[in-house]
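User: Just a sanity check before I run the rest of the batch. Below are the structure tokens for the first item. I only need the designed sequence back.
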């Protein structure tokens, strides 16, 4: 998995890290443990909200997706345990949510995004057979569909 981790890390440039000052007080749950923790959000989401001049209104879902993405790329990330705690607080069925989205992305032939979600499930629940099976299948699909020999070697 380390080879795939290295391969996926190139995609983290699609994220920026922000602090949740105003969102900490708006949450119904105690997420004060995130006070000094940088939160990943996609560059796309940030740019949409900057254009609308409502940067303080980034949807909660954007934080969840950013954390899932980071956790799926790097289970050794410095704030992994805080992100995991937040995800379980945000949704008691977060594993089902991530698995569903991973499978949906695979059905849409978005295999790299799918393996990020499936790796996030595996990093939180390493015995999840559905995530393990579908992760392997997606990796195989990426390999089989790639026509670039160098790309196959990197993956």
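Assistant: Here's the designed sequence for the first item:
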């Amino acid at each position: 998995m380390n080879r795939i981790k290295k391969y996926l890390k190139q995609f983290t440039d699609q994220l920026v890290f922000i602090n949740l000052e105003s969102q900490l007080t708006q949450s119904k749950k105690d997420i004060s443990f995130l006070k000094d923790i940088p939160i990943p959000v996609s560059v796309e989401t940030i740019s949409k909200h900057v254009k609308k001049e409502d940067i303080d209104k980034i949807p909660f879902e954007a934080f969840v997706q950013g954390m899932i993405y980071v956790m799926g790329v790097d289970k050794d990330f410095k704030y992994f345990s805080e992100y995991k705690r937040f995800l379980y607080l945000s949704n008691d069925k977060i594993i089902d949510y991530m698995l569903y989205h991973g499978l949906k992305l695979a059905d849409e032939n978005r295999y790299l995004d799918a393996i990020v979600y499936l790796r996030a499930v595996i990093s939180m629940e390493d015995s999840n057979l559905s995530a393990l099976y579908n992760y392997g299948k997606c990796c195989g699909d990426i390999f089989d569909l790639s026509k670039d020999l160098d790309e196959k070697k990197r993956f």
